[in-house]
């Protein structure tokens, strides 16, 4: 099997043209015709992930986040990005990223996976792309039963194994209709409010952005890694459905750079 055989399966679900203009999804290191021995799935490509891939006999890493996001002007090991790319090249390990194109699909996407773990149903795109019915940012769904705000936050913390949750002031009303966006989703807060969500679950909210909730919605910032951690299982399952006997591995490493004391 070649690299392109794996990436074709993934791109059938989330075509590269669906990624945002600023993104860098796709094959970052390696050649499409390179033979694949085994695949390692992760959220972030790091030096430790490359080492794990080599140790497990994998020469293809499929990550959610692109290791090269901005242009590289030199490769001299000055940054972790440069060192990771250099090590991958040295070890002949290909790196593929499937990022905002996977964020933007309704079914088998990042947010659908997050919704599954939270327990949401009746899902719909929060912010549809023009002239589309199944492509866009974020999701809106419903809990089977309403919860108090305290119960909902406790449920989120357990379901996402979150070290902590930053949130806006409680509004004293039950939570039933929930908007979500894996990763940095503060840009979707106006849509969540407009769609009548009781709560918005996302990550990377800045201090002043919490004010934008303006007493109309409960914002729950669960952490970037925590909101996307199940993506690697999703990617493994997509490829496994097509190649059920091929060697596919989930990383054993937790690449979250954020710790809680």
Descriptors for this entry?
261 residues, alpha/beta, Udp-n-acetylmuramoylalanyl-d-glutamate--2,6- Diaminopimelate Ligase, Chain: A, domain 1, 2 domains, 6-stranded mixed sheet, 5-stranded mixed sheet
Largest sheet: 6 strands, mixed
H/E topology pattern: HEEHEHEHHEEHEEHEHEHHE
Strand content: 15-25%
Structural class: alpha/beta
CATH superfamily of the largest domain: NIF3 (NGG1p interacting factor 3)-like
Ends apart, CA distance between termini: 45 Å
The chain-level mean pLDDT equals: 96
Which fold name is given in CATH as the topology of the largest domain? Udp-n-acetylmuramoylalanyl-d-glutamate--2,6- Diaminopimelate Ligase, Chain: A, domain 1
CATH class of the largest domain: Alpha Beta
Strand order of the largest sheet: 5-6-8-9-10-7
Number of domains: 2
- Low-confidence stretches are none
The level of helicity is 25-40%
Spatial extent as radius of gyration: 19 Å
Count, helices = 10
Principal-axis shape equals: globular
Q: What quaternary form is this?
A: single chain
Strands, count? 11
Which CATH architecture of the largest domain? 3-Layer(aba) Sandwich
């Amino acid at each position: 099997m070649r690299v392109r055989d794996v990436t074709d399966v993934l791109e059938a679900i989330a075509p590269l043209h669906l990624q945002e203009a600023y993104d860098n999804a796709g094959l970052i290191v390696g050649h499409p015709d390179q033979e694949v021995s085994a695949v390692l799935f992760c959220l972030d490509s790091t030096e430790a992930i490359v080492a794990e891939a080599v140790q497990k006999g994998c020469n293809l890493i499929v990550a959610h986040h692109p290791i090269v996001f901005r242009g590289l002007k030199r490769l001299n090991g000055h940054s972790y990005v440069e060192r990771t790319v250099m090590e991958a090249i040295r070890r002949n390990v290909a790196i593929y990223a499937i990022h905002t194109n996977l964020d933007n699909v309704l079914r088998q996407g990042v947010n659908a996976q997050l919704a599954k773990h939270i327990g949401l149903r009746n899902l719909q795109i929060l912010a549809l792309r023009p002239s589309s019915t199944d492509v866009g940012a974020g999701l809106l769904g419903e809990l089977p039963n309403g919860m108090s705000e305290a119960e909902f936050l406790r449920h989120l913390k357990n379901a996402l194994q979150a070290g902590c949750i930053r949130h806006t002031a409680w509004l004293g009303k039950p939570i039933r209709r929930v908007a979500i966006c894996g990763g940095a989703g503060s840009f979707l807060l106006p849509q969540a409010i407009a769609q009548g969500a009781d709560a918005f679950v996302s990550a990377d909210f800045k201090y002043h952005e919490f004010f934008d909730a303006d007493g109309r919605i409960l914002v729950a910032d669960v952490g970037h890694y925590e909101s996307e951690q199940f993506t690697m299982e999703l990617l493994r399952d997509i490829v496994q459905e097509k190649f059920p006997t091929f060697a596919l591995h989930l990383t054993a490493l937790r690449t979250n750079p954020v710790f809680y004391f």
